[in-house]
Amino acid sequence: MYLEVNNLSVLFDTALILDKVSLRLDVGELVSIVGANGAGKSTLLRAMAGLIKWEKDTLKGTKLGRITLQGSIIFEEEEIIKLPAHEIARRGLVLCPERGRPFREMTVLENLRVGGSTIKDKTLLKEKLQNVYDLFPILQKRYKQRAGTLSGGERTMLAVGRGLMSQAKILLIDEPSVGLSPIAKDDLFDKIREIHHGLGASMLITEQDITYAFDLSSRNYVLSNGRIIAEGTASEIGKDEIIKTYLGL
C-alpha cells in the first residue's frame, strides 16, 4: 500500500468534519473522492498534507477554536500524521489546493521555482521546468506574469506544475474544476490524464463534477457529511440506487 488513511477524524470545536474516513491509494493509481460542497473533501486533503496540525490530538488557539485530529495516515509504510507540512511535502506527498492558491505577487516562474527549491542540480531543475512548460505551454507564455492575475484554470495548472517541480510522488489535487468553463475543464482534465499516463504519477483528486472524476479515475470514493458512503469503479457505484440518486446519476 502506497498511501493509507485509517479512521481519520477532524473536529472543529464540536463540529465533526470528518468521521473515521479510511481510504487507500496504490502506486500509479488515480483515485477520486467525489461529493457535494461541504462534504469534507478539502479538509481531508489538508489533513493528509499536514495542514491540520497534530499536537497531542488537540490544537488550541486557532481562529476556528479547537481542532482535534485523530486517526492514522501511512505513506510508504511510515506514519506521517504527526509530521509538519513541509516534511510531508519533502517526502513527496504534495497538495495542489483548490483554485491553485499561488503566491500571488510572485511571477509564474518564481512560483515554479519555489516548487523546485529542493532540487540542487541546475540541469535537473531546468529539465523539470521544461517538462512543466511542455505540459502547460500557457505557463511558459506567462512566465513573467504575476500569478495573482492568472485565470482560474491557469492557477490550477500552476499548482499542478509546482507539484511536479517538487518531484511529488503523490499529487493531492483539490477540486480542479471549480470555477472553470466546460472547455477549460476539458483541457485541464486532459492534461491531468496525460500526467497520470505519461509520467505514471499517483494522484488523489477531490471533485464535485462526478462526470469528469469518474471518466478519469480507476476507483472512486463518495464522501457525504464527512463519511465515506461508497467505494468502487464508476460502474459499481452507478449500480447502487441510493448512491446513484445521491449523485444525481
Helix content: 25-40%
Arrangement of strands in the largest sheet: 7-8-9-3-10-11
State the separation between the terminal residues, measured CA to CA.
31 Å
**Which architecture of the domain at 3-98 and 170-247 would the CATH scheme give at its second level?**
3-Layer(aba) Sandwich
CATH class group of the domain at 3-98 and 170-247: Alpha Beta
The global form is globular
**How many helices does DSSP assign?**
10
Beta-strand level of the residues, as a percent range? 25-35%
Question: Largest beta sheet, briefly?
Answer: 6 strands, mixed
**Secondary structure tally: strands:** 11
Low-confidence runs of at least 5 consecutive residues: 56-64
H/E element sequence: EEEHEEEHEHHHHEHEHEEHH
CATH homology superfamily of the domain at 3-98 and 170-247 = P-loop containing nucleotide triphosphate hydrolases
In angstroms, what is the radius of gyration? 18 Å
CATH topology of the domain at 3-98 and 170-247: Rossmann fold
